[in-house]
Design brief:
- It is built from 19 helices and 6 strands.
- By secondary structure, it is of the alpha/beta class.
- The protein has 3 domains: 4-188, Nucleotidyltransferase, domain 5; 197-287, DNA polymerase, domain 1 (Orthogonal Bundle); 302-384, HRDC domain (DNA polymerase, domain 1, Orthogonal Bundle).
- Helix 3 (84-92) links the parallel strand 5 and strand 6.
- The termini are far apart.
- GO terms for molecular function: 3'-5' exonuclease activity; nucleic acid binding; nucleotide binding.
- It comes from Corynebacterium qintianiae.
- Residues 288-308 are annotated as: Disordered.
- This is HRDC domain-containing protein.
């Protein structure tokens, strides 16, 4: 397999010229390093086009040049990606935007494959076995080892074959229009919101008042330090441990060291993080953050829903089971047939158990028309208890 690594403006122009002369869609993928670096930016962009070849674009240090060189060629064109939602944000950060998308992972799920990962799909449609042993590497490293480069190139060279094979399957199953709606929906998704300490998983288990102040203080210190050093925040202190510290509120370095998961053996970690923790203890209670107000239109947690709203919970369970049965009959993953969050929202808002009402509420919540047509009748029936 032939491919070219391009990592400077001169080779960028050569690659862009070759890609422009090719034909058909662009097969695109990225390699990121969020386990090692502060953000989820792309450190490698793989592009393959029939008649042009395969190019591995290394943008670090030349991101503006990547944008100015490749945007005129790639932007507005037809792209093929696998699990596009993982790659589109980092590509957008480089100023690269598709005109249309064919997502082979999503297409495989619509087609009924239980294992829609790239390696399984490539083997299914081409008979080629991919070595998928480098997915968790530090792709910000330079120079990239040759075997890593080959691994990255293989992520795109078979995407055209996958898209063509999956198109035939979806067309035969009458699912091509549903796929088109899903692909269009991918392009309409808003940018990934900026994270804050309020987004910490498990924060709802932290006591209000001082606990929230500890969480905020630790998160803000971690974020500032991670941004300054271009390090993954979780490599400094995992969010799970951060929340546990806020929950347990250790008062001495020894107590901090005993918090489950805390990197006590890391040199200087106890003293450094206890200094940060101490800052929270010295903040006046009048400046502690208030607990986040719960919105009435958001479903409660599973346990709270079951405990405080048992009748509504029973309606949700009935609807969920009905959709799972329908998904099985259509050979579509249940979460693709209708995202669980949409079902929870519709049931929680107490929509009447008739098809028209369910359909209107699903559309308002963001379901695609094909989903609404498929699930509204069985959801309404389940909500009526019949």
């Amino acid at each position: 397999m032939r491919f070219s690594l391009v990592d400077d403006p001169t080779t960028f122009h050569s690659a862009a010229t070759a890609l422009a002369a090719g034909c058909g869609p662009f097969a695109v993928d990225t390699e990121r390093a969020s386990s090692f670096r502060y953000d989820d930016r792309a450190f490698l962009v793989q592009v393959h086009r029939r008649g042009a070849g395969t190019f591995l674009i290394a943008p670090e240090g030349h991101r503006d040049a990547v944008r100015s060189t490749f945007a005129p060629v790639l932007n507005g064109a037809d792209w093929i990606l696998h699990a596009a939602g993982e790659d589109l944000p980092s590509l957008a950060a480089l100023g690269l935007y598709p005109g249309t998308v064919f997502d082979t992972e999503l297409a495989a799920r619509l087609a009924g494959f239980e294992r829609p990962n790239l390696a399984a799909m490539v083997h299914e449609f081409t008979g080629v076995t991919l070595d998928k042993g480098h997915g968790r590497e530090d792709w910000s490293a330079t120079p990239l080892p040759g075997e890593w480069q080959e691994y990255a190139a293989l992520d795109v060279v078979h995407l055209n074959d996958l898209a063509e094979g999956l198109t035939e399957l979806l067309d035969a199953a009458g699912k091509l229009d549903a796929a088109a709606q899903e692909f269009t929906h991918l392009l309409s998704l808003p940018p990934t919101p900026v994270k804050s300490w309020r987004d910490l998983k498990g924060l709802s288990t932290v006591p209000s008042g001082l606990g929230l102040e500890i969480a905020r203080t630790l998160w803000e210190y971690r974020d500032t330090r991670a941004r300054r050093t271009d390090t993954s925040p979780h490599a400094l202190l995992s969010s799970k441990v951060l929340v546990e510290i806020a929950r347990s509120q250790p008062r001495t370095p020894a107590e901090l060291a005993r918090v489950r998961g805390f990197p006590a053996r890391r040199r200087g970690a106890v003293d450094k993080w206890f200094d940060v923790l101490s800052q929270a203890y010295h903040v006046s209670p009048t400046r502690w953050p208030a607990a986040a107000a719960e919105r009435d239109d958001n479903p409660p947690s599973k346990s709270a829903w079951q405990r405080h709203h048992p009748q509504s919970w029973e309606r949700f369970v009935a609807a969920r089971e009905a959709l799972a049965e329908l998904a099985g009959s259509l050979s579509i993953a249940s979460e693709v047939l209708l995202q669980p969050a949409l079902l929870r929202k519709v049931v929680w808002e107490g929509v009447p158990g008739d098809t028209d009402s369910v359909a209107r509420e699903l559309l308002r919540a963001g379901a695609r028309p094909w989903q609404v047509d498929a699930v509204s009748p069985v959801t309404a029936q389940a909500l009526r208890g019949k």
